[in-house]
Amino acid sequence: MGLKFSLPTVHHELLEIALLAIELGATELTNRFRQRIQIQSKGLANFVTEADLAAEKVILETLIARLPNHRFLSEESQQTQVVQAEHLWIIDPLDGTSNFMHGIPHFAISIAYYRNQSPELGLVYNPITEDLYLSIAGQGSWYGPRKQYVDTAQNLSESMICCGFYYDRGRMMQTTLETLASFFHQNIHGIRRFGAAALDLCNVGCGQYGVFFEYKLHPWDFAAGMLFVHEAGGRCTDCSGNPLPLLQPSSLCATNGQLHEEALRVIHPHWANLNASAW
Fold first, then answer.
1. Are 133 and 149 in contact (CB under 8 A)?
2. What is the tens place of the pLDDT at every residue in 138-154?
3. What is the pLDDT of residues 201-237, one digit of tens each?
4. Does domain 156-278 have CATH number 3.40.190.80?
5. Which of 62, 112, 141, 181 could connect to 21 by a Cys-Cys bridge, CB 3.0–4.6 Å?
């Protein structure tokens, strides 16, 4: 492989294939970064670029050629798959498309492998900074060769909070802003919003944020990052405290575990009041 990944001493039978897919997808993105690109709109402020499509194409071709009996769910093609698939890959070829479009080097490829509906392997890779976040069920979460753990904060007043905004510019946006105001009343250290949920989740796992929340995400947004949080000792649920679904959009609350119930007490009332029509 051309890229020099700095890896920990861990093992998964599909890791090498996943790394190859990441490498080839990363090449497609870096070749197009800060270049003139074709953009298609999927809705208000929701875009897909030729970079997304090119990266997805090479990632899927790489995996399908080597794993023809596996199933795949990817953001751009959104192939219909059943949750009962024994081997399922959930892929976001470009998480942080808006950042990419504006030349901001904060975006990632996210790839997760599930066996019998249980996450086994997750990779999140920023091809510009060359930051690789790797998680393997039962073997931990790793940033490069270093094992990662969530923050040890016991109270929101000891934490930095991160959030995401879905593309909706109506009630969901307003509800998110109201939730942020409620967090500030808890004397948090501050709020950050960087626009790439997969990386945000990894930052929770690395102990940089005590809480990350967003009121609507898709499985490809959180499949790999969720495993990273769990393996680093944290907790991920929806904004009502329920387990995250495998193949459906969901709200999300990720924390270091210690802050989870306190965070939900801030988040859930706003979530409960959000009109279901926003979905």
1. no
2. 999 999 999 999 999 99
3. 999 999 999 999 999 999 999 999 999 999 999 999 9
4. yes
5. 62
